[in-house]
Structure to design on (280 residues):
């Protein structure tokens, strides 16, 4: 399948790589981001790789921006064949350390933005009788990760929504896939860490020793993680498989976590797995 692809969160990381990879695969790719002032890296990469992109502003946290952005793409390109819900934001902190305001923000950007994007494109895909939707989840959407309470909640919501929606809209010729990366060595991790300043500064926080052990054990996983291009290759596969699977893990590590989770009916094996990095 090729056609018109719309990618959210395309200014960096997985979104940037996916926009390039889809264009290389033959898609007319609309790469969107909230702030066009951050399009420089994407433009440089597109020029270096010899691909053309339609780079547009779209704020996934603003329903009016979503509606206007989707309508504009359909007007310019006569439709949308593929939606890649990639835009997201991370957060580090346990439930007790996370304000309700931050929890709402994480759910809004990581879950409700995808919900609203899908609501905007579905009428057009139904009318066309075809289409694909790829939602970016995470290994944290397969098994809850320590100190990722709000983030994993949002990714679990993505998983549940996608799995529930998929059989229904398949009746209209529309396929939903979930892409589940493991550790990815992009600026996303540094951005999350930089936003967790209060956690690192408070030496008296009772969670601090556990957090330090978790971060120490986790950093090496991200240092040795996949690149955005690695994940983008799996997204292209999900976009072109005929028919596509519901789930795609992007690495052996993510696949291993999925095998444990989906075979673990009482949850004990998952807790043993995710808690291993917290032990002294």
């Amino acid at each position: 399948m090729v056609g018109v692809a719309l990618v959210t969160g395309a200014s960096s990381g997985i979104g940037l790589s996916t926009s390039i990879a889809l264009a290389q695969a033959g898609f007319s790719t609309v790469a969107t981001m909230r702030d066009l002032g951050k399009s420089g890296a994407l433009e440089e990469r597109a020029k270096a790789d010899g691909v053309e992109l339609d780079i547009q502003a779209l704020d996934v946290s603003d329903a009016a921006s979503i509606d206007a952005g989707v309508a504009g793409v359909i007007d310019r390109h006569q439709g949308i064949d593929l939606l890649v819900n990639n835009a997201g934001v991370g957060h580090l902190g346990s439930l007790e350390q996370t304000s309700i305001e931050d929890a709402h923000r994480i759910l809004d950007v990581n879950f409700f933005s995808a919900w609203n994007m899908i609501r905007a494109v579905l009428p057009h895909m139904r009318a066309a009788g075809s289409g694909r939707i790829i939602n970016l989840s995470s290994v944290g959407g397969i098994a809850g990760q320590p100190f990722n309470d709000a983030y994993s909640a949002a990714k679990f919501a993505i998983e549940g929504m996608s799995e529930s929606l998929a059989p229904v809209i398949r009746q209209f010729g529309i396929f939903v896939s979930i892409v589940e990366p493991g550790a990815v060595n992009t600026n996303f991790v540094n951005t999350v860490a930089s936003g967790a300043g209060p956690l690192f500064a408070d030496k008296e926080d009772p969670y601090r020793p556990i957090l330090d052990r978790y971060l120490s054990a986790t950093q090496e996983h991200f240092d040795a993680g996949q690149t955005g291009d690695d994940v983008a290759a799996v997204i292209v596969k999900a976009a072109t498989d005929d028919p596509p699977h519901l789930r795609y893990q992007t690495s052996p590590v993510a696949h291993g976590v999925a095998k444990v989770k989906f075979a673990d009916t009482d949850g004990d094996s998952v807790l043993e797995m995710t808690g291993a990095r917290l032990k002294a």
About this structure: The first strand starts at residue 4 and ends at 7.
